[in-house]
Amino acid sequence: MKGDPVVHWIENEEPKSAWWRAESGLAPPPKIVVADDRMTADAAFRLARAGTALLWRGDFQNARQLLQALARRVDRQAPTAGAHTSGEAFHLHRQAQGRRAHILNKLLLPLNADYSVPLRRAPDVRQACSEAYGPGGVGEAPSLISLRELQGLIGAHEWRKKGVPVAALNNRIYPHYGVFAPVRSEYVGLVNEAPLPAALAADSLAFDIGTGTGVLAAVLARRGVARIIATDQDPRASACARENLARLGLAEQVAVVQANLFPEGSAPLIVCNPPWLPAQPSSALEYAVYDPESRMLQGFLAGLAAHLTPGGEGWLVLSDIAEHLGLRTRAELLAMIDNAGLQLIEKHDVRPSHRRVTDATDPLHAARAVEVTSLWRLAI
């Protein structure tokens, strides 16, 4: 924990301190008061809204109920669907998410050195914390954590245990904490069904740029590509991909390299599924969803020609939801492709089928209802 911030508070008229844990990037709270089962939801809401964090010393299950009560109070002020244009709705939605996080993250829990929670009726979260923070135990110090972040760790641990079914693999992928889970199957299906470039016959090699869980690399391997180099700059993603590929028996076929975008050399097939929304992440974990100023998208397109072998193809897997939200136009995307010296061979489209497509209460429903996910086959 060396280098992590320390938080301070007064408890029982004595100064206290602990390490601050926040993998989500949440800043340490400047003011902390101790709270327990006697605190009402209204009182907690007033303190949290004013910026005061609450260090919970009561029953763990009561802390969960308090968090739910705080969420209900925050959500009463959430924007309603259909009241604005899609672009306005997106920005209002992001603002509402920020306000929600600002308040809900103020409910804190203590963690012992071994990641056990010293509260009544607390679950055993040691394994979930170890997967996110690394091993705890002797030599470590007690710390504080937002209950909301702890719930995220527990949820990620459950995903990692149960896995995500992937029809294209007839198997499961097991995401790690902080690595985007392949819960939207349509983009995986596109990579599984698009015709492979003829140039693979001479050199059966593919690059998977920003591999994440390794799911697209695994799909390409199962389709018969002999060698695949999968890259990711996130150490968590690299470890996750290696574990998944080993579990699928593909470790010899797929090499995982920690790198920003392209590995060395060139290949007849290069696949990339960048984050789909060109917006600023509000936490470290949101980089799987938001691509600030389309930096990864532009980097992939700008470097693609230099890494394709003659007759090769670059597959860009991208949703058009950014266009429906007014964050990027189709003309801007086409200009990026043209400026990179690339041409479009063919585009394969699919409509998403996740539950939000039909959820009229979703603030972004208007954009989600018309969203299309595409695989752009690009060549020099």
Topology:
Blueprint: E1 6-11, E2 14-21, E3 32-35, H1 41-49, E4 53-56, H2 60-75, H3 86-104, E5 107-111, H4 126-133, E6 143-146, H5 147-162, E7 164-166, E8 171-173, H6 185-193, E9 205-209, H7 215-222, E10 227-232, H8 235-247, E11 254-258, E12 267-272, H9 295-307, E13 308-319, H10 321-324, H11 330-339, E14 343-350, H12 365-368, E15 373-379
Helix pairs in contact: 1-2, 2-3, 4-5
Organism: Rugosibacter aromaticivorans
Pfam family, one: MTS
Domain Methyltransferase small: 205-319
Give your account of this protein's structure.
The structure is a single chain. The chain has 380 residues and is α/β, with parallel strands linked by helices. The chain has two domains: 154 residues, no CATH class; 216 residues, Rossmann fold (3-Layer(aba) Sandwich), CATH 3.40.50. Helix content is 34%, strand content 23%. It is built from twelve helices and 15 strands. α4 crosses α5. One of its GO terms (molecular function) is protein-glutamine N-methyltransferase activity. This is Methylase. It comes from Rugosibacter aromaticivorans. InterPro entries: DNA_methylase_N6_adenine_CS (IPR002052), N5-glutamine_MTase (IPR050320), SAM-dependent_MTases_sf (IPR029063), Small_mtfrase_dom (IPR007848). Keywords: Methyltransferase, S-adenosyl-L-methionine, Transferase.
Q: Keywords, please?
A:
globular, 380 residues, 7-stranded mixed beta sheet, alpha/beta, Small_mtfrase_dom, Methylase, Rossmann fold, transferase, nucleic acid binding, protein-glutamine N-methyltransferase activity
